[in-house]
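Input/output pair, single chain:
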Amino acid sequence: MKKIMVDMDDVICEGGFLALVNEFLGTNYQKEEIKTYYIQDLIPKERYAEWGEFFNSKNVYDHCKMLKDVYEVLEKLSKQYEIYITTAYIFRDNEEYSAKNLKNKFEYLYENLPFISPENFIFTTNKEIIDCEIKIDDKLSNLKGKAETKLLFTAYHNKEITEEELKQQHVIRVNSWKEIEQIL
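Output:
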């Protein structure tokens, strides 16, 4: 059975980080306005400590929604493939908050994808170590490795990557879970 690595944030679910940033700043940013991979880059540097405490007091996944068709397509694919949800959990700006983020990610996956065994949840920042035939991620650098099929899921931060650049790296851009279903 072939193995699929599937990223979590902005591939399975979205919106939590932006919701918390907007709540913290009292703003109404939309994902289309974000150009950086790290949404927290919107936080002024002088408020980073305050932001860290705020973020640590919240569960970002209370504010996430699953992407359209993800549940149905993953459930269907789980009958043909071995699926591994592979997600980073280290909070970039304050590693001590990472334990809570790990717990929150685990609980979200456990509750929302009951057909995927928790034994298939992999929490790592270095996705290059994952040996599988198919990789699905929204960060181009996470698609490195020997996978025969590499799918870049379109997200707010990767729309500027050209088709030529993707072609050079043997990566296919996908815009929806229905596209992934058709490819796989």
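The two ends are 13 Å apart (CA to CA). The first helix runs from residue 16 to 25.
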